[in-house]
Amino acid sequence: MVWIILSIAILLIIIGLLIVFIAMKKYKNHKTDYYNFFWIGIVWVVIGIIANDSFFWIIGLVFAVIGLINRKKWKENHRTWKQLSKSEKKFKIWVMVILVIIVIIGGVVLFITENKNIDKNKAIEIALRSECINEGELTDNVYYNDNTDTWWIDMNAEKEGCSPACVVYENGNAEVNWRCTGLIE
Predict the structure, then answer these.
(1) What residue spans of 115-149 are helical by DSSP H?
(2) Which candidate, 31, 57, 55, 38, places its Cα nearest to that of 46?
(3) Integer Cα distance of 66 and 74 in angstroms
(4) Bridge partners of 175?
(5) Is the Cβ–Cβ distance between 152 and 145 less than 8 Å?
(6) Domain spans of the chain?
(7) Is 181 helix (H, G, I), strand (E, B) or coil?
(8) Which residues pair with 166 in a beta bridge?
(9) What is the pLDDT along the chain (185 residues), one digit of tens a residue?
(10) Alpha-carbon distance 151 to 145, whole Å?
(11) HEC states along 48-94?
């Protein structure tokens, strides 16, 4: 999931840089709008916190601080929709449409990848049809490991110095992890 968010972030940065490049060519004498810097920063901080992505909230914080430091220039450089020329309005509409499309695509990709996770009942079902049953009985202690995207189901199996679990993977495979400690002779 991290690679998806990172890919979307990189895509947004590339598109943002292209937009900045086009805008710089077109509007060479335009002054920085620190009011928008501030709000872009606030939005990025919120996105970063929700997505648990430190890159977004740190960059957002930088934008917000830059905007706040230059608070006196907000009215000087900020232009409302009514103050924009027809070509500037058209440009902004295209930017918004592109960003909405990117957000929708990102949401669809996130939804598709999130739904690949198997639930607890499916994990137990897979474990009951696996080699785990040959080694021992499954217990009611079932938990999901977010780091490895695996379900761990504790087992009652006799092997000295071991605390076995049936590990169920996202691809539907399962195997016994004996979780042995110490020296086994």
Answers:
(1) 120-128, 132-135
(2) 57
(3) 11
(4) 167
(5) yes
(6) 2-114, 120-177
(7) coil
(8) 153, 176
(9) 567 777 877 887 888 778 777 776 766 666 778 888 899 999 989 988 888 888 888 999 999 999 899 888 888 777 788 888 898 889 889 888 988 888 888 777 777 766 557 889 999 999 999 999 999 999 999 999 988 889 999 999 888 888 999 999 988 899 999 998 876 55
(10) 6
(11) HHHCCCHHHHHHHHHHHHHHHHCHHHHHHHCCCHHHCCHHHHHHHHH
Copy the structure tokens of residue 139.
Answer: 């217990």
CA separation for the pair 115, 98 (Å, rounded): 26
175 three-class SS: strand
Structure tokens at 72: 């006196």
To 5 degrees, how large is the angle CA 73–CA 78–CA 83?
145
SS3 153: strand
Report residue 47 as tokens.
Answer: 């996105």
Main-chain dihedrals φ then ψ at residue 75, nearest 5 degrees: -70, -30
40: which 2 tokens? 């872009």
Query: What are the φ and ψ backbone dihedral angles of 167, each rounded to 5 degrees?
Result: -100, 120
The neighbouring-strand residues paired with 110 are none
Q: Tell me the pairing of strands 150-156 and 137-145.
A: antiparallel
Helix (H) or strand (E) holding 158: none
